[in-house]
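Lecture notes, unit on protein representations.

Consider one protein chain, 147 amino acids long.
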Amino acid sequence: MKARSKRLMLVGGGVVLLFAAVALVLSAFQQNLVFFHTPTEVAEGKAPTGKTFRVGGMVEEGSIKREADGVTVRFAITDTAKIIPVTYKGTLPDLFKEGKGAVVQGKLENGVFQATEVLAKHDENYMPPEAAHAVEQAQKAATTLSQ
């Protein structure tokens, strides 16, 4: 083989390896990508079915119910326009309370959000930006409808 053909094969092999590495990174990124949706978007069917995503808003007043097993908790997340029922098995964060901001991650199954993770607010002034935006948009929509 000539030196030129060896170089071409080496460069070609390097390009193939580079494309394979990029494909693997993009595949891993796509599998771990989690989108945020509001309760209104979930109720309108805009959220993916069978895939993990996040829903954020306020924990509905009077909605927290603990099951007899001591681990399962049922509650509802709202953006003041729509309410999504949530079921979670596990320990809730200490700051998780009714009327406060929360984001839940999981999947929607038969109209009930099966949460695998619950995130609560940090202090009295904090709400996740996505949840704050969702509440703001829902309030604007409700104001527009009432006029």
